[in-house]
């Protein structure tokens, strides 16, 4: 999830998308992105984007997400490298340093530790969706369905944790901070 905010004391260096994507892909060398969806939580015209992504290889687990190799390994389906300039065209091809990212998994774990709810031990999008009685609209494990579900889960988690907007911003991180934290934990 992404949000923009001013007045945040974060690093002034923007992460170049090519480097950012390379770092993400290096973490899971055999995994490939096959669909991407984005939602601007402030809404408005053109506040969502969704597309299949050509991974250039066989797509496993089609029974889970419904996306087959034949659907994505075609010349008319963009590769991730081709999508970056399109996705970030308003950002001078860089992720702005004031864009913030929130990991709903860490919030769900925090809620479990606080004992403030009877969340299931296996925290997944499905488990959180069922816990909060959020209806599944669309196919599970499809990008836009998951994005919309996670937006609702984020609202519920912030309510249960009694987080104000300033508290939520404090718990968020820039893209480079998020990647650095993931590396430290590995």
TrEMBL record:
SUPFAM superfamilies listed in its UniProt record: Ribonuclease H-like
GO MF terms, alphabetically ordered: 3'-5'-DNA exonuclease activity; metal ion binding; nucleic acid binding
Keyword Transport: no
Residues covered by the Exonuclease domain: 25-163
InterPro entries xrefs: Ribonucl_H, RNaseH-like_sf, RNaseH_sf, TREX1/2
Entry's Gene Ontology cellular component terms: cytoplasm
Source organism, top-level taxon: Eukaryota
GO biological process: DNA catabolic process
Co-factor requirement: Mg(2+)
Keyword Magnesium: yes
UniProt record similarity statement: Belongs to the exonuclease superfamily. TREX family.
Name of protein: DNA polymerase III polC-type, putative isoform 2
């Amino acid at each position: 999830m992404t949000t923009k905010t001013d007045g945040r004391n974060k690093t002034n260096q923007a992460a170049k998308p090519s480097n950012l994507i390379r770092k993400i892909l290096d973490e899971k060398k055999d995994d490939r992105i096959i669909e991407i969806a984005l939602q601007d939580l402030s809404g408005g015209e053109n506040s969502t984007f969704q597309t299949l992504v050509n991974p250039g290889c066989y797509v496993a687990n089609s029974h889970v997400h419904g996306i087959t190799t034949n659907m994505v390994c075609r010349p008319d389906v963009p590769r991730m490298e081709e999508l970056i300039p399109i996705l970030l065209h308003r950002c001078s091809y860089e992720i702005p340093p004031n864009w913030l990212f929130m990991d709903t998994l860490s919030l769900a774990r925090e809620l479990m530790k606080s004992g403030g709810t009877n969340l299931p031990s296996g925290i997944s999008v499905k488990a959180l969706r069922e816990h909060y009685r959020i209806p599944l609209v669309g196919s599970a494990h499809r990008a836009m369905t998951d994005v919309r579900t996670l937006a609702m889960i984020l609202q519920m988690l912030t309510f249960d944790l009694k987080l104000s907007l300033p508290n939520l911003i404090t718990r968020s991180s820039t893209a480079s901070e998020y990647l650095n934290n993931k590396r430290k934990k590995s």
